[in-house]
Amino acid sequence: MAKSARRKLRQIERGRIRSAEERVQHILDERTESLASRRKEAAALAQALPRALVCSSGRERFGILIEAVAEVLPPQKYMPVPDGPPALVGLFGRSGRLVSVIDLALALGIDPSSTEDEDHHFVLLRRDDSQVALRVERAHAVADIHLLTGEEATGFRTDAVTGYARMQDAAGDPADTLSLLDTERLLRPFLFPSPVPGV
Q: Which of 40, 153, 171, 179 meets the CB 3.0–4.6 Å disulfide criterion with 148?
């Protein structure tokens, strides 16, 4: 009788141990699934966020969607264009083609904060026809951006600005707002048929 009672107690104890282990394992499995789903959501969010090249001209900060950018170049020597629009500051050669240089500040009608050519970066745009580089005062970085809507969506206004954004890691300061450029709209007044191939 005592032996059968002890046997039953051992079976109950084993059942408790087993069920406690199962509970712990169940909790661990749930946490693992939760972490995995969070990582998937974060990865999906990162893929969904647009990326832009952040650059500045004058006191303004602009974002150019990365799909429109071919390359960021250091300062280049260029030849002036006689009788061209003021924003078309010159031409330089690259890979056997002429590249038109448009000064972003002049194209947008804003005052540049620096007139020293050696300080500027050149943003070579990805285009099918004529080669164009935007001369900006500084190309800062490529960043994930959040598009702004409503009252937050304010900043520098022009036809070439199609919206506003903030870098993902920005603290929310209005000074961190980027004006998003539509490069084709920006270039429209400066692109005209040219007798020189590649211009």
A: 153
Relative to beta strand 97-103, strand 88-94 is antiparallel
Residue whose pair of structure tokens reads 């600005």 in the numeric block? 161
Distance CA 83, CA 86 (A): 9
- Of the candidates 163, 170, 188, the one whose C-alpha atom is nearest the C-alpha of residue 65 is 163
Our measurement of the distance from residue 109's CA atom to the centroid of its chain's CA atoms, rounded to an integer in Å, reads: 24
Whether 73 contacts 121, CB under 8 Å: yes
Written as tens digits, the pLDDT of the chain (199 aa) is: 566 666 665 665 665 556 666 776 767 777 777 666 655 554 444 445 689 999 999 888 999 999 999 999 998 899 998 888 889 999 999 988 899 999 999 999 988 766 666 678 999 999 888 899 999 999 999 999 988 887 766 666 788 888 899 887 765 555 678 999 999 999 988 775 544 444 4
pTM above 0.85, yes or no: no
Task: Indicate the residue type of 52.
Answer: A
Q: How is residue 79 annotated by DSSP? A: B
Within 8 A by CB and 6+ apart from 163, the residues are 147, 148, 153, 180
